[in-house]
Design brief:
The protein is α+β, with helices and mostly antiparallel strands. The chain has helices at about 5-10, 25-35, 55-65, 70, 85-90, 100-125, 140-145, 175-180, 190-210, 215-225, 235-240; strands at about 45-50, 75-80, 130-135, 155-160. About 45% of the residues lie in helices and about 10% in strands. A 4-stranded antiparallel sheet has the order 1-2-4-3, with helices on both faces. Pfam families: Nitroreductase.
Amino acid sequence: MNQTIETLLAHRSIRKFTTQPITQPVVDTLVQAGQAAATSSFIQACTVIQVSQGPARERLAELSGNQSYVATAPVFLVFCADMHRHQVACDQHNAPMLSGFTEQFLTASVDCALFAQNVVVAAESMGLGICYIGGLRNQIAAVGELLALPNLVYPVFGLCLGYSDQNPEVKPRLPLPVVLKQERYDDGADRVHLAEYDAHVRAYYESRTGNNKSMTWTEQISGMLQKEARPHMLPYLQGQGYLLK
């Protein structure tokens, strides 16, 4: 155990921030920490767009499901998977770029996630709170238009940054034996572990909400996966030049 691991294990999503500003040099340092993340074949396929408080931020809050903290967080970043600059690089050398491959979508998206998680770890090490905003994909085409995203760029998620004005509990994660397998995929004991975890999660929700919510993890997941999961994503991504082959 060390300070880095303690910071990682103490992660919480923060949805209420103080008005204390974050200076631009701090934001720059966090983004540089993101750039230090591993990148597949050195493609560096992540672009970050910082959106200041104002009409554009308010519109992003609306598009992400009217999440007020998107509009009010001191800093809001949009992480974009970006293969557009690679097209520019190919054009610079008169080399036809073969794009649209599923592998390119995967590597660009993974690059973006690794970049963002480095930013998050760096931010939390500095005492900042964060909240990922996957809701940007609710109306992804409108987000792309607002941010003037060119072909081969898509917004993966947003990130709120600020000094926390709340102190939520750490949400319990799945038991280690469920996620860490030895030698092969063996889920023979998972039902037993999940039953224990369900009881833990129900107690967490009941204590956090004053018994206004009583739900297990498996109940939550089974309910979520009976609904369509943003079916507009595939045509949008294909329109941006991804997942064509």
